[in-house]
Specification:
The structure holds 2 protein chains of 2 kinds. In chain A, 31% of the residues lie in helices and 17% in strands. By secondary structure, chain A is of the alpha+beta class. In chain A, a hairpin with a 2-residue loop joins strand 3 and strand 4. The longest helix of chain A has 14 residues, at 108-121. Chain A starts with a strand and ends in a 5-residue tail after the last helix. Chain B has 3 domains: 31-135 and 193-286, Aldehyde Oxidoreductase, domain 3 (Alpha-Beta Complex); 290-467 and 641-791, Aldehyde oxidase/xanthine dehydrogenase, molybdopterin binding domain (Aldehyde Oxidoreductase, domain 4, 2-Layer Sandwich), CATH 3.30.365; 469-596 and 631-638, Aldehyde Oxidoreductase, domain 4 (2-Layer Sandwich). A 7-stranded mixed β-sheet of chain B has the order 3-5-1-12-9-10-11. A 6-stranded mixed β-sheet of chain B has the order 7-15-14-13-8-29, with helices on both faces. The termini of chain B are far apart. The chains are: A alpha+beta, B alpha+beta. At the A-B interface, helix 2, helix 3 and helix 5 of A face helix 1 and helix 18 of B. The complex binds FE2/S2 (inorganic) cluster (2 copies).
């Protein structure tokens, strides 16, 4: 009972990538185990925790709820692609370190992709909006206080404010 | 100390890796030829296994092996170890790696499938037909104590353990007291629920005849010894490495799990790497839970609210097995007294078997229940006497000048429960001020006038932290001037790479960037206990300080010889040893490291300086003195006589909706005293995370079994971990009462945030509603029921 394989070709973090996978291969598993991009994490495999969030053509999606074959030809950004152009930490990543927005770091990639997309549309959130922005992601370690602060700090960094 | 890093809120050293997606967690390990394991698990809470038919699985392409109990032999065919024996644990039972004849909870592993990938392994697992003969399940403490049915045939009352501790004559003290109360106080079952489940990866090296195991465990060293025993291998042929771990909160201290012995065993048999990463459903039904206890309290007190006698009897639901002994109920029974002088105290518990997942510590480990009992009792006394709740607490506090204070009990480490230090009245004063306790009557009245219900609660706790027996550390200065630190306990997000680097950098006078910390890798440090009970900072922190202190002394001695000065006149700043007041007489620590290792061979530029014709010195003594060792390195251990005791006070303000009974936390205030802070930002983060789990445990999270022993909410859809919207802003104030027990003066901080959560929120809801709250967690529909019952 060998499974039929399907070629999936897409752009991940600006680089063309591809692999042949069964139709049922989840996008999260495809990214992690076929492409070796293990920054995307899987916390629940049922769409609740948000750890597996990646950007699909710029929009945050839960990669554990998608089959890899359904995103053939798409553009995907993972946490590995949220670095700054010079290869250093991107502003959202930097903000999470600055504000101690992570402990074990397992949920962090999902927050970073989510916040990256959010700030593109909402560059100057207030405290309440920052809390809403992360309202769909679970973190078991931080109690969210410093993640809210990280969102605000990231916005500040992106607007070019160092302070 | 020249540089001052201890106490600084420096950013974490582990973060650049983790925020970039470059962490390496268990399931990130993929290597050529690797196989995946999946498990067939029992769908029944209690059943005999009649037959296992694997033929269906054989058709699956990519299937490599199927194993059942029949395939196990030797130590592997024996039950898994009882990790913490105790004389009161009269009927300990632990599971077999794969069920033998009988399953005792939904989720118990019955067969292991190994295939070329996880999808195929699951396909094959689904095709294995197990025939069960269902048996009557025992679910819940009532059924367990009635013992109409048994979980283990040879345990006739379902009781695994029974323990009584008594200080004074509580019954007599209560009988003679001018006031008495009786309370029934219950806490329901919950679970640690780290975002990353358990996982294990094993690789057998046939050439070397050695086994490398990666596990998301809270104890790599003990797992290593357990694996060597179970797999009949010399310890030196087994290495256990803990990769980045996505949270633990207690559940990952259990070891070896069935999967942890089976995956390495299969890797050896199949001569291929094998990996198993738990999925979320598996985590719910096959790891461990905690919290479920029912307490019955009798208390006697005087007209001022002073405790004269307290007697607590409780039932603990330990699930189907007891690999972790009686730790949870024992901690409840001993931490229950909190910051108070109890008069006479008697505590008695029965630990009972049920056909549910085993119960082992979850952050707080019995303390949240104990604090719930004590603090609800305090509030009940205040209500009975019409006194302010904080006044009753103040009158019962152990005073700072009474420290060290002996509660007369035996703690979970087998040692006397003696509080080392703490200023409980000061903590309460701070908390009252922070939350605005004295002004709240007006706030409550005002809200009432607007038709709103608000209430305030307060809860105090004392937490035994930093339990022994020991931890150790190795510190070495490289010839590059970089410092390597290794300690054996493990890390699940607590920032050990940062705090241990701060301690080492301070001792050695080097920039923190030059220090590299490794934890939980038996190749780097073989003797350790593990990460639990808020012990890592206390235990390994002091061990790192001890090892680094020895290295410092050696560096000063060698530098003193090189510079021909008294070591006492030297200091180390920024990695350079120099004569105090004469900075030009100096030698870099890197060069001292070179000199510390006399060489024959010049394998690199620096090594030249240490070769036999380059070094001067006395030709009449050996290059390495008798009492010395080569290398600028040392190992240090820390082993305390007793635990340290941290303490704190939480206060919360809630609002309950008069119609919908929705419960909203308006304010959450924390006063926390864990001795000296190594990194205040990291401690603050620990408190935040603990509070969020406390809020979850008080208002949202519970594990629900039906009467058949089916777990009804085994998903994040139904087991409600708080999102950001449910966790209020947390206001924190710190006190720092140093521990006299260890050189750094620190106490543990990891669990504190969660401990008084249920107690403080129950108190606040009770205050808002005017209805006693004696059972947690509480959700809006339960509050609504309470209101109805109250009106009837
Ligand atoms: S893993 Fe996709 S949402 Fe949890
Ligand atoms: S940092 Fe551990 S789950 Fe968020």
């Amino acid at each position: 009972m060998a499974e039929p394989m399907h070629e999936v070709a897409l752009t991940v973090n600006g680089v063309p990538r591809g692999a042949a996978v069964p139709a049922r291969r989840l996008l999260s598993d495809f990214l992690r185990h076929d492409l070796g991009l293990t920054g995307t994490h899987v916390g629940c495999e049922h769409g609740v925790c948000g750890a597996c969030t990646v950007l699909l053509d710029g929009e945050p999606v839960r990669s554990c709820l998608l089959f890899a074959v359904t995103v053939d030809g798409a553009e995907v950004t993972t946490v590995e692609g949220c670095r700054s152009a010079d290869g250093g930490l991107g502003p959202v990543q930097q903000a999470f370190q600055d504000c101690h927005g992570l402990q074990c770091g397992f949920c962090t990639p999902g927050f970073i992709t989510t916040v990256t997309a959010y700030l593109r549309e909402n560059p100057d959130p207030d405290q309440e909006q920052a809390r809403d922005a992360i309202g769909g992601n679970l973190c078991r370690c931080t109690g969210y206080q410093n993640i809210v602060a990280s969102v605000l700090r990231a916005a500040q960094l992106q607007r070019g404010g160092a302070g | 100390m020249t540089t001052k890093l201890f106490g600084e809120p420096i950013p974490r050293r582990e973060d650049p890796r983790l925020v970039a997606g470059a962490g390496r967690y268990l399931d990130d390990i993929d290597e050529p030829g690797q196989l995946a394991a999946a498990f067939v698990r029992s769908p029944h809470a209690h059943a005999s296994i009649v037959d296992i038919d694997v033929t269906g699985a054989l058709e699956v392409d990519g299937l490599v092996a199927v194993y059942t109990y029949e395939d196990l032999a030797g130590p592997l065919a024996q039950p898994l170890p009882l990790l913490i024996p105790h004389p009161s644990l009269r009927a300990a039972r632990t599971p077999y790696p794969l069920a033998k004849d009988r399953v005792r909870h939904v989720g118990e592993a019955v067969a292991m499938v190994v295939a070329t990938d996880r999808y195929l392994a699951e396909d094959a697992a689904q095709r294995i037909r197990v025939t069960y003969q269902p048996l009557p399940p025992v679910v819940g403490l009532d059924a367990a104590s009635k013992a109409g049915h048994l979980v283990h045939e040879d345990v006739p009352d379902n009781v695994s353990a029974h323990l009584v501790q008594e200080v004074g004559d509580a019954a007599a003290a209560i009988a003679a007291a001018p006031h008495r109360l009786h309370l029934e106080l219950h806490i329901e079952r919950s679970a640690s629920m780290p975002m990353e489940g358990r996982g294990v990866h094993a690789r057998w090296d046939e050439t070397d005849r050695s086994l490398r195991v990666y596990s998301s465990t809270q104890t790599s060293t003990s797992l290593r010894f357990a694996l060597a025993a179970k797999l009949d291998l010399p310890v030196d042929r087994v290495e256990v490495v803990t990769p980045d771990v996505g949270g633990g909160f207690g559940v990952k201290i259990v070891h070896p799990w069935p999967e942890e012995v089976l995956v390495p065993w299969a890797a050896i048999r199949l001569r291929r790497p094998v990996k198993w990463a738990e999925d979320r459903r598996e985590h719910f039904i096959s790891s461990a839970h905690e919290r479920g206890q029912q307490h019955s309290v009798d208390v006697g007190f005087d007209d001022d609210g002073r405790l004269l006698g307290l007697s607590v009897k409780f039932l603990h639901d330990n699930g189907a097995y007891t690999p972790y002994g009686i730790i949870v109920p024992q901690v409840t029974s001993t931490q229950l007294p909190g910051p108070y002088r109890l008069g006479a105290y008697r505590v008695e518990f029965h630990s009972l078997y049920t056909n549910t997942v085993q119960v082992t510590p979850y952050r707080g480990a019995g303390r949240p229940h104990g604090v719930f009992v004590m603090e609800r009792t305090m509030d009940a006394i205040a209500a009975a006497l019409g006194l302010d709740r904080t006044v009753v607490r103040e009158r019962n506090f152990i005073q700072p000048e009474q420290m060290p204070y002996d509660q007369g009990l035996i703690f979970q480490d087998g040692r006397p429960l003696v509080y080392d230090s703490g200023d409980y009245p000061a903590a309460l004063r701070l908390a009252k001020k922070l939350v605005g306790w004295d002004e709240f009557t007006a706030v409550r009245e005002q809200a009432r006038a607007q038709g709103r219900r608000v209430g305030i609660g307060i809860a105090c706790y004392v937490e035994g932290t930093g339990v022994g027996p020991y931890e150790g550390a190795y510190v070495r200065v490289e010839t590059t001037g970089k410092v390597v630190v290794a300690t054996g306990l493990t890390t699940q997000g607590q920032g050990h790479e940062t705090v241990f680097a701060q301690i080492a950098a301070d001792q050695l006078g080097v920039p923190v960037e030059n220090v590299n910390v490794v934890t939980g890798d038996t190749r780097r440090f073989a003797f350790a206990v593990g990460t639990f009970a808020s012990r890592a900072a206390v235990m390994s922190g002091n061990a790192v300080a001890a090892a680094a202190g020895k290295v410092r002394a050696k560096a000063l001695r060698i530098a003193g010889e090189a510079l021909e000065v008294d070591p006492a006149d030297l200091s180390i700043v920024d990695g350079v040893v120099s004569v105090k007041g004469t900075p030009q007489a100096a030698i870099p620590l890197a060069s001292v490291a070179v000199l510390a290792n006399p060489l024959r061979y010049a394998f690199d530029e620096q090594a030249k300086q240490a070769t036999q014709f380059a070094v001067g010195g006395g030709i009449h003594r050996p290059p390495v003195a008798e009492d010395d060792e080569p290398g600028l390195a040392a190992t240090g251990y820390y082993s305390p006589v007793r635990s340290t005791f941290a303490n704190g006070v939480h206060a919360a303000v809630v609002e309950t909706d008069p119609e919908t009974a929705e419960i909203r936390i308006l304010r959450y205030c924390v006063v926390h005293d864990c001795g000296r802070l190594i990194n205040p930002r990291i401690v603050q983060g620990q408190v935040h995370g603990g509070v969020a789990q406390g809020v979850g445990g008080a208002l949202y999270e519970r594990i629900v079994y039906d009467e058949h022993g089916q777990l009804l909410n085994a998903s994040y859809m139904d087991f409600l971990i708080p999102y950001a919207s449910e966790v209020p802003a947390i206001e924190i104030d710190h006190l720092q009462t140093p521990s006299p027990l260890n050189p750094l003066g620190i106490k543990g901080a990891g669990e504190a945030g969660v401990i008084p959560g249920a107690a403080v929120l129950a108190a606040a809801i009770e205050d808002a509603e005017g209805i006693p709250v004696h059972r947690m967690p509480i959700c809006p529909s339960e509050l609504w029921e309470l209101r109805n019952a109250d009106h009837r």
